Amino acid sequence: MRYDFECIACGARVDPEDRPAECPDCGGPLEVAFDAGALPDALPESDRTDLWRYASFLPAEEVSPVPMGEGWTPLADA
Ligand SMILES: [Zn+2]
Description:
This protein has strands at 3-7, 13-14, 30-34. By secondary structure, the chain is mostly beta strands.
């Protein structure tokens, strides 16, 4: 999924390939901006139990997951 960074303060769009830490125009914080209409309607079938189960919803085009044993959060009686 294609995404940009958008400045929360001034609305400037910044190419994430430039790996900016802040808005180059005003120094404001950046957030990920993407076309929510391009998201899939449902989760694809997956046996994964980690974050990468949701990869098709994440604003990342090519990822190489490095799982660290994380998974479903169990419900426990308290
Ligand atoms: Zn800005």
